[in-house]
Amino acid sequence: MNDMSNTPTHYRDGTAAGFKGNSTAARENSREAAEGVQKTLGHRQAQVLDAFALYGAAGAIPEDLVNVLGLAVHLLRPRAGELVKRGLLFEVGKRQGDYGKPVMAYSVVRPEAQAVAA
């Protein structure tokens, strides 16, 4: 078990860019990578949030945003996860992705079931 008590909360919670692993090596690599990403993270998260907002309550999968934003899906998926953890984006079910597998869809509108539970 790793002691993460000295790690800033936003890293522990998985809401910071590049910090998703729990091993010592992953944390070291993640911190270094995060330094570069962190500089533009707020802008990128806002950009992704605005793009999901275009789809309303029905939401979208990250692949849908590729053409809207002109960004690769591997840049969009982590931002969606960070926005979910921040409570700004909500999971609204799975849909078929580009490779025929189910992919999580997200919306800026909280689903009814989540709104009742909250």
Summarize the structure.
Residues 1-38 are annotated as: Disordered. It contains five helices and two strands; from the N terminus they run ααααββα.
Tell me what you see in this structure.
Residues 1-38 are annotated as: Disordered. With 118 residues, the protein is mainly alpha-helical. The chain has a domain at 40-117: Winged helix-like DNA-binding domain superfamily/Winged helix DNA-binding domain (Arc Repressor Mutant, subunit A). It has five helices and two strands. It has helices spanning 9-12, 24-53, 62-69, 73-85, 112-117; strands at residues 90-96, 102-107. Strands 1-2 form a two-stranded antiparallel sheet. A hairpin with a 5-residue loop joins β1 and β2. The longest helix is centred in the first third of the chain and has 30 residues, at 24-53.
Q: What layout of secondary structure does this protein have?
A:
Elements: H1 9-12, H2 24-53, H3 62-69, H4 73-85, E1 90-96, E2 102-107, H5 112-117
Antiparallel strand pairs: 1-2
Helix pairs in contact: 2-4, 3-4
